[in-house]
Amino acid sequence: MLSLNGKAALVTGGSRGIGRAICAHFGLLGARVAVNYVRDETAAREAVAEVERGGGEAFAARADVSRPDEARRLVEQTVARFGTLDILIVSHGIWKPAAIEAMTADQWNETIQVNLGGAYAVCHHAAQVMIPRRSGAIVTIASTAGQRGEAGYSHYAASKGALLAFTKSLAAELAPHGIRVNAVSPGWVLTDMTRHVFDDPQLREQAVRPIALGRPGTPDEIAGPVAFLASDLASFIYGEVLCVNGGAVMND
To answer: Is residue 164 within 8 Å of 179, Cβ to Cβ?
Structure first.
């Protein structure tokens, strides 16, 4: 039976989209959840309330994990509140268009620092908690863009491709310490970040054309696989990239 009963979890980017759905699923499975956010405190508190309605325990924790000191404080705050850290979900990220001929160095650096630098920072500090305990699960949220590229978003695709390599490296490095590291790689998911694509008939048709299922996913459809990888049911899974994309990208 899938259960996270009593587990202490930290979800970066937990106030919206996929991160919020993950928090809600974790609450239903009995977890205690630190809901990380950067700007929207109201959304974070709503996510906390959703976890609590599901039977879990939660609190909102503001931190910009692309800043290493804030990532450290976030992990420390989670441990102070729950006494430990069992699960880390790396779900934060930005997705901003920029054609390569017009992309500025600042645009490139922002995406890499948030999406990849933030993943490094929070994993770095979480590992310091998990290694002495010889236990833990880390799940990163990657993207099909990191597997096949994405025109107009090369900086985003580069950050997600690197995140997949980072995930596999950590899986090999942390396995001897009893820490499992895996990735979920979503395709198109209907969230507030992508809604403009699906509100435009032409953009929607372009987006769903490669999807075998013929539609975008929902945040809940990503959260379920994440919960599985975070649970003890996935105890023999290390360094896996679980593609959850409706058949848009089918890897060997």
So the answer is: no
- Read off the amino acid at residue 119: A
pLDDT, one tens digit per residue, over 197-224 is: 888 888 888 888 888 888 999 999 999 9
Is residue 156 part of the annotated active site? The answer reads yes
Tens of pLDDT along 85-139?
Answer: 999 999 999 999 999 999 999 999 999 999 999 999 999 999 999 999 999 999 9
- 60 and 44 in contact (C-beta within 8 Å)? yes
> Rounded distance, CA 64 to CA 116, Å?
13
Domains, in order of start, for the chain: 8-192+220-240 (3.40.50.720)
**DSSP per position, the chain:** ----TT-EEEEETTTSHHHHHHHHHHHHTT-EEEEEESS-HHHHHHHHHHHHHTT-EEEEEE--TTSHHHHHHHHHHHHHHHSS--EEEE---------TTT--HHHHHHHHIIIIIHHHHHHHHHHHHHHHHT-EEEEEE--THHHH--TT-HHHHHHHHHHHHHHHHHHHHHGGGTEEEEEEEE--B-STTTHHHHHSHHHHHHHHTT-TTSS-B-HHHHHHHHHHHHSGGGTT--S-EEEESTTSS---
- Going by pLDDT thresholds of 50, 70 and 90, the confidence category of residue 192 is confident
- pTM value? 0.96
Catalytic residue among 37, 120, 153, 156: 156
